[in-house]
TrEMBL record:
One of its GO terms (biological process) is small molecule biosynthetic process. This is Fe2OG dioxygenase domain-containing protein. PROSITE patterns: FE2OG_OXY. Keywords: Iron, Metal-binding, Oxidoreductase. Belongs to the iron/ascorbate-dependent oxidoreductase family. InterPro entries: DIOX_N, IPNS-like_FE2OG_OXY, IPNS-like_sf, Iron_ascorbate_oxido_reductase, Oxoglu/Fe-dep_dioxygenase_dom. It comes from Daldinia eschscholtzii. The keyword Metal-binding applies.
Length: 326
């Protein structure tokens, strides 16, 4: 097997801290600056819509469904959740649902952008990881078919500025340290600082966001599938520097995820066998699919964010816990 099919992306660049649990950069990805700016313009325009319009498209996070609009928390819960999100799922029949006219007016443009991430960035990376794991180069690709059922989506996101007094109450942390629950997360250029990664020593470092690069992090599903060899990246968002703190922080993110029915069990890999990692590093008490893991994590987050529980819940599903890093 060779990584020949990976050549559609010309360069992979890693930040200085590359031991484990790191972000990495993809350049030569084929997206023009104009394409990315267009999506950010739609992102901004969506969040400028009246609240009563946006709330027509609420996602059902209580049931682990992130499709649609998630408002930020208000009142006593405002410190738990300071962002708005609009998640646009894969453009497949199972995800047919109402969208604001703004989104419908640019439907084909958004669809082309999403498909380009999946086909031209995600798939080559999956072949690269398969090469690293010494398995068939299409093994992971065949478990991330775009047309198959699954919860892959593009996200528009907006963090709202807060006063120094409010931020101080929560240690200036806008999003607590966490891992993502999908396969790979793609973050497009973000000019407002705030994203940090946790190093193996437990320190937090800012993640630079070059204008020509997509920031990528490994998430839970790929950690499970690789028997713990590929580590889910621990990251958080903090209050921006003072010269940026009064500006909204917009984000353009794509979450790639295995097909809904894929079991989160380690692939049979010569590399994992040699390293003694072929057994799961953390066992589910029974088989768990990618969709079950994602929905369980979303639902548990909903319970804390909306005040149904006062502490973040540890166990997610089947005896496997979510770790917290702040």
């Amino acid at each position: 097997m060779s990584p020949s099919k990976v050549e559609t992306i010309s360069t992979y660049e890693y930040p200085e801290e590359t031991k484990e649990r790191c972000f990495f950069y993809v350049v030569g990805h084929g997206f023009s600056d104009e394409e990315i700016r267009r999506q950010y313009a739609l992102c901004e325009a969506f969040f400028d819509l009246p609240v009563e319009e946006k709330t027509k498209y609420l996602c059902d996070t209580a049931k682990g469904d992130f499709r649609g609009y998630k408002p930020r928390s208000t009142g006593k819960l405002a410190t738990r959740d300071n962002d708005e999100r609009y998640n646009i799922p894969k453009f497949t029949p199972e995800h047919e649902r109402p969208h604001p006219q703004l989104i419908r007016d640019h439907w084909e443009e958004i669809r082309a952008f999403s498909l380009k991430i999946h086909n031209d960035v995600l798939l080559p990376l999956l072949r690269l990881f398969a090469y690293v794991l010494e398995i068939d180069e299409d093994y992971l690709v065949e478990r991330h078919r775009y047309e198959a059922e699954g919860l892959e989506y593009l996200r528009y996101m907006k963090y709202h500025p807060r006063t120094a007094e409010v931020d101080a109450q929560i240690g200036n942390i806008w999003a607590k340290g966490h891992t993502d629950y999908n396969t790979l997360t793609f973050l497009f250029h973000q000019p407002i600082a705030g994203l940090q990664v946790q190093t193996p020593e437990g320190n937090w470092k800012y993640v630079k966001s070059p204008r020509d690069a997509i920031i990528v992090n490994i998430a839970d599903a790929l950690e499970f599938l690789s028997g713990g060899y590929l580590k889910s990246t621990v990251h958080r968002v903090v209050r921006p520097p003072e010269d940026q703190v009064n500006r909204p922080r917009l984000s353009l993110i794509y979450f790639a995820r295995p097909e809904a029915n894929i079991l989160l069990k380690p692939v049979v890999s010569p590399l994992l066998q040699r390293l003694g990692l072929q057994a799961e590093t953390e066992h589910f008490s029974h088989d768990v699919t990618a969709e079950e893991w994602a929905r369980a994590r979303i639902a548990k987050d909903h319970r804390f964010r909306t005040g149904l529980v006062d502490q973040r819940e540890k166990e997610i599903i089947a005896g496997v816990n979510q770790k917290y890093y702040d």
